[in-house]
Amino acid sequence: MTSHAKPSGQPGHTIDERSREQMVHGAVPLRGGEFLMGTDAPGGYPADGEGPVHRVRLSPFTIESHAVSNDLFGAFVEATGHRSDAERYGWSFVFAGLLPDEFPDTRGVAHAPWWRQVEGADWRHPEGPGSGIEGRGRHPVVHVSWRDALAFCAWSGTRLPTEAEWEFAARGGLAGQRYPWGAELEPAGVHRMNVFQGRFPTENTCEDGYAGTAPVDAYEPNGYGLHNMTGNVWEWCADWFTPHYYRASPTADPPGPARGTHRVMRGGSYLCHESYCNRYRVDARSANEPASSTGNLGFRVVLAT
Which pLDDT value is given to residue 110? Predict the structure, then answer.
């Protein structure tokens, strides 16, 4: 999905007091400081530019404890009249396993046929026409592009985290670990995030309790009090993406490359599985075009200073 249309978030519309209070209440101030970013460990995706491990120093920032929910995004839409990119295009990508058996045939992605192009899929209709977000107000908003996220930020007086800020926050104060809680995927057999169990893509046993998205505050938070930094939904970051950026990136508050074609997304989602995409790690990276949207991609924000 590509377009040259501009986001429709209206800077003239300001966030309402209730939404602002909700965001401030859920925000976590972090002191910043130095940490080791990236990974050189085996089992990852070197082509994504996950390494080399390098020291980064960050200024203090305040990040939301969870991803933006359907309720909060809905307040933004009601205040501004924003139409998401998925609504403009008239379709978005939906995981085939979430579509009912009687759903009409749809076009699939050639290299990933489990992704279906569904007409009428958008943030209000996550699985297309006939679906809705009733009962999912506290679930993360999905089918939002990077440009939609930026429009939300313009309304709410926030911004997207840089990739370095995101990883610092996701690590929760732990150094050199794969997950926000440590080295083990399921410590003592306990599920700590929402990812795909079973045989991808045909059999999801839902042992973690969820087939699609989970509430934004599901599972125990990390050491910084942040929920679902891995799993559940991918989260947009501010940076342009390049797999070679780490090799010569600034050591203090790195802003990401000056240009690019794709924006960084972090954290993995409910579709990640060790056999297909084990990017549900604090050090994993991926990217998508700024106008693209999918049913497993959302965002969280940093409070603007």
Answer: 67
Query: Hunting for tokens 């989970």 — which residue is that?
Result: 214
Q: Does residue 297 surpass a pLDDT of 50?
A: yes
On whether the CB atoms of residues 60 and 30 are closer than 8 A, the answer is: yes
Helix (H, G, I), strand (E, B) or coil at 203: strand
The alpha-helical segments, DSSP class H, found in 81-236 are 85-89, 146-156, 163-171
Q: Residue 287: phi, psi to the nearest 5?
A: -160, 160
Identify the DSSP state of 187.
Answer: G
Q: What is the pLDDT of residue 10?
A: 44
Predicted pLDDT at 7? 36
Positive or negative: CA dihedral 232, 237, 243, 246? negative
What is the token pair recorded at 288? 């998508």
Q: Which two tokens stand for residue 52?
A: 């080399």
Cβ-contact 145, 291 below 8 angstroms: yes
Domains of the chain and CATH, by start: 17-303 (3.90.1580.10)
